[in-house]
Amino acid sequence: MATSLTTGRPWRVILTFAVPLLIGNVVQQLYQVVDTVVVGRELGVNSLAAVGATGSLLFLLLGFAWGMTSGFAIPTAQAFGAKDAAGVRRSVATGTLLSAAASIVITIGGPLLAEPVLVLMQTPPELLAEATLFTQVSFLGGGATMFFNYLSAIIRAIGDSKTPLVFLTIACGLNVVLVIVLVGPVGWGVAGAALATVVAQAVSVLLCLEFVRRRMPMLHIRREDWRVTRDDIADHLRLGLPMGFQASIIAIGTLVVQVALNVLGAEAIAAYTAASRVDSLATALLASLGLAVSMYVAQNFGGRRPDRIRSGVVQATWMAIVASLVLGIVLIAFGTHLVRLFVGDGADEVVELAHLMLIINGSTYALLGVLFVLRGALQGLGQAMIPTITGVVELFARVAAAVVLGAVLGFAGVAMSNPLAWVGAVVILIPAYVRAHRALAKMPVDPLEPTLTTPIAIVGPDNSSLNVDAVVTQPVPVMVQRRWKKLLRR
């Protein structure tokens, strides 16, 4: 159900919106967790390391897709906050066309680049065949991943963070069944694990499309909405490309980390893979909070409520810090037990190295929490430059730590690359948001007033057929958004 984030206590609105995102993020991480557990226990440490060796490469392209589709949803959220129904539909049409184009590039280019890039990354020869196969199957299903991310993003943009969770949970259950069957009885190995995830994502896409068709008429694109303008495309790319490149820049850093791990051998790769799975589940809360903040800020920016933006971001920052401390304590205390879920008996060195990485990351989660919230706030305001710069800073910090500290300290040095990257990003984000915070204080609280009317379809509730039973006129506000953007840049 579409929900406005422009009313109610900010911390409560953000938290309520973030909880389904958190559950959805955890469920999404379960895709990878199930793959890791089944592959590690059914196929062995080398197969687990082969799957782990593909993570940074997959993130390079699929992470770009995720970041870009999230950026495409920000104009949708701003139009929804401004009560601009035509703007919402036009934004959805623009994002759909751009997502389709990106899907074609990933589906064709990804499989072709898989093996050469894995060789360039110095993937151990004994892992190369399985790593290449897993990567190619994953990229062939890149379109499903792209469109599930995009559909989820636009549904969240109009205030509904629960529906994508429902569909994701169903898909995760399907993924669990498929990966067990395809890797085990069917015997398709790592290719079966990748295929299970692709099929589950495709089912999620179908469920989202059917839900939008039946329940969300405000997202139904009309023929005239497909006539997107150059300005529409530029506006979406202005946000989508930097957010995608930001994810890719971070992924390039992880590629360097992967190279450093490959030099250390299969056990180091397996340990990093297992620790990353646990770490991803833990940081899902912080990532969800950051995404909730970006949608909250975007809607309130569209609705001209700078006062709510200022108070909401401060409250979200404190929530992130408290959550970070709790998560860090849990990982440090119980990390060993969690890692053992991914490996069988006789892998004590893998468990020890993985727990070391969890201790290093868990003790610095507060930095990551602040990073997610402030970056999400700036993106919600439509600022693309600073978040992109922080991605570049993370890249250099992560590469320097992996190369220099990895050579001196081994696995521990590589593990330190994440916290050092977070430090570099936060150093940039804090003063950037402080400037935006002060600029928001100078803006008038100018809630939109109805000034025009537009026909609104009243949909018959009998059979969810979306037939128009009546047409009435509904006040619709006119937003002068450019004036606000100029004020924010001052």
Automatic annotation (TrEMBL):
This is MATE family efflux transporter. Pfam families: MatE. Coiled coil: none annotated. It comes from the Bacteria. The chain crosses the membrane at residues 12-31, 51-74, 95-113, 133-153, 165-184, 190-212, 239-261, 281-301, 313-334, 354-374, 395-414, 420-436. Keywords: Cell membrane, Membrane, Transmembrane, Transmembrane helix, Transport. It is a multi-pass membrane protein. The keyword Mitochondrion does not apply. The keyword DNA-binding does not apply. Its main location: membrane. It is found in: Cell membrane. GO terms for molecular function: antiporter activity; xenobiotic transmembrane transporter activity. One of its GO terms (cellular component) is plasma membrane.
